[in-house]
Amino acid sequence: MIEHDFIPERYSVLIDEGKTTWRSPSNIALVKYWGKKENQIPANPSISFTLDACATTTSVSFKKRDHFDEGFSFELFFEGKEKEDFKPKINTFFKRVEKYVPFIKEFHFTIETSNSFPHSSGIASSASGMSALALCLMDIEKKLRPETTQDFFNKKASFLARLGSGSACRSIEGDLVQWGNHKETDGSSDLYGIKYPYQVHEVFKNYHDTILLVDKGQKQVSSTVGHDLMHNHPFAENRFAQAHENLTKLKSVFKAGNLYEFIKIVESEALTLHAMMMMSDPYFLLMKPNTLEIINKIWAFREASGSNVCFTLDAGANVHVLYPEKEKTEVYQFIKDELVVYCENGQYLCDRIGYGANKL
Ligand code: DP6
What we know:
By secondary structure, the chain is of the alpha+beta class. 34% of the residues lie in helices and 23% in strands. Residues 29, 32-34, 40, 46, 124, 126, 165-167, 223-224, 227, 273, 314-315 line the site of ligand DP6.
């Protein structure tokens, strides 16, 4: 599909008001998206596990406006309170998607949103937040165009979510989602995420992700600044090529359930992301001493026990500890005994692979 396919010709039904509510999860990238071009087009393809517990629930009530003058009309409530400082982000999102959902000028919206995880956890909510909002808009579009197919609905929801935040396009479906053109993945696209189209071994079902909150502070590098660092980065081209190679390698890893190779790719991706930031101009160091303590403990535990536990990182100090379902008892015990001590106020979140967003 091309961008033009997402511009609607006309709507077949007229409605005056209504309400829709969606719960959309976060996701954790295994091959990282880091670097983008104009219009939220990724510089390299990425793949993620869709999460389950970490999610945003968003309700959008809509009512036809009397006059569709300039500008969008909406109110925004976050966890029950009106949130003025979130409004510019929504306004930018509306501007970017207006061409594809032209009805948004015709309605006044009341947006009510909340997260399942604490706002101050340092966990990015843009993936779950933007995907939940995109799904609400798509649901309204479906009311105006009931002939919309499920496949088109998912693709366009992902397309719209991407315009809000790149990684959000990987939060519509589960359990593994790939985004970005990759010549060895059929159906892959820079415009939206797709459910991973190849065989995935049983061992990856119900995979666990325990998120260790090492630093709950505000992100030091916003994703916009972060992605910009890849422009004129001396290692950018090699990094983008490496992401393509890692996706190719993952194909046989997923099929065979090869956890040894899986761990090598996932940990290397996490460290490469941070290495890119350390070599940028300006440079950043987003790991904290406790991030390194945790990584070393994970490596020592793996060495001593033969466990398949591994880690990945976002653009911050928190550590995602990934492990298969059948090792959950031992690994969880290890986390409690040896890793929680490195978390800010001992806080961590238990999550696992999920199957995508739901309408409530
Ligand atoms: C490190 O999706 O937050 O988490 O498109 O600017 O909103 P924007 O960026 P964002 O970047 C995510 C970067 C990452 C890696 C990943 O999720 O693939």
